[in-house]
Design brief:
The chain is 26% helix and 25% strand. The chain is α+β, with helices and mostly antiparallel strands. It folds into two domains: 121 residues, MutM-like, N-terminal (N-terminal domain of MutM-like DNA repair proteins), CATH 3.20.190; 114 residues, Helicase, Ruva Protein, domain 3, CATH 1.10.8.50. The strands form three sheets. The chain has a four-stranded antiparallel sheet with strand order 1-6-7-5, covered by helices on one side. It has a four-stranded antiparallel sheet with strand order 2-3-4-8. Helix 3 crosses helix 6. Bound molecules: zinc ion (ZN). The site of zinc ion has 7 residues, from loops.
Length: 259
């Protein structure tokens, strides 16, 4: 599942392909926005807030933002301009943007919306501080996490209103790094800041190294029953959070004992 670092990587690729380019084609295959005319618009940039992508454009002095969210398995794929989309199959395409030089296809996007740029806050205003933002304050974020109280640590880390950008992978890795059981009440955890600092630098590294290399460094995520890299105990997998927001997490029962 794409997390904040994957969203930022997608934004960098979108900027390389389309920033500064005038769109010759723009198809939004989402009923509500299918009639929005973006051809002729110039792409300014794509920014991220957590796992949300904001592609900003200007057309006839109007500033618009295409908001996309990859959720479980969405992807942005870029390529050279062509008559045909650079990715498919066609029924999975939610948005297709093209300039004279490049194109970008958004596959399986959970959300695609077009709003006035001045209305972006309506889409992202509820989010907590972005782990990957240059202005991210670890101390502030730690305070937000522990102040949630009795909720389980990993469930709190996954709540995008508390901090945004972490998904199941980095939340599990954070808890392991600080030796805390994922089900521990957030208010009792003393070293959230150290964990945030760790995953933030791992996410930054993943942006340049790419997903394959960063996955090879994972300590618990998707390593069910494999030996812990620290102590050799079998990694466990379990559900966390409450329905309908239940997610999967991983931990080492020796390094991260439940109290
Ligand atoms: Zn262990």
């Amino acid at each position: 599942m794409p997390e904040g670092d994957a969203a930022l990587r997608a934004a960098i690729r979108l900027d390389e392909a389309l920033a500064g380019e005038r769109l010759t084609k723009a198809e939004i295959r989402v009923p509500r926005f299918a009639t929005v005319q973006l051809a002729g618009a110039v792409v300014l940039e794509t920014r991220t807030v957590g796992k949300h992508l904001l592609t900003r454009l200007v057309r006839d002095d109007r500033r618009l933002t295409v908001h996309s969210h990859m959720r479980m398995d969405g992807r942005w794929i870029v390529g050279k301009a062509d008559q045909r989309p650079c990715a498919g199959p066609g029924f999975q395409i939610r948005i297709w943007l093209m300039s004279a030089r490049s194109q970008a296809v958004g596959l399986r996007m959970a959300e695609v919306k077009v709003v006035k740029t001045s209305d972006e806050h309506r889409l992202i205003g509820f989010l907590g501080p972005d782990v990957l933002s240059p202005s991210f304050s670890i101390e502030d974020a730690e305070q937000r996490v522990v102040s949630v109280g009795d909720s389980e640590l990993v469930a709190v880390l996954l709540n995008q209103r508390v901090v945004c950008g972490l998904g199941t992978m980095w939340a599990a890795e954070l808890a392991h790094h600080i030796g805390v059981n994922p089900y521990a009440p957030a208010a009792t955890v003393r070293n959230v800041a150290r964990g945030l600092d760790y995953v933030r630098s791992e996410m930054m590294a993943a942006i340049t190294a790419g997903p394959a290399q960063s996955r090879s460094r994972l300590l618990v995520f998707e390593r069910n029953r494999q030996p812990c890299r620290t102590c050799g105990t079998g990694i466990r997998r379990g559900r966390i959070g409450t329905e309908p927001y239940q997610r999967v997490t991983y931990w080492c029962p020796s390094c991260q004992p439940s109290s």
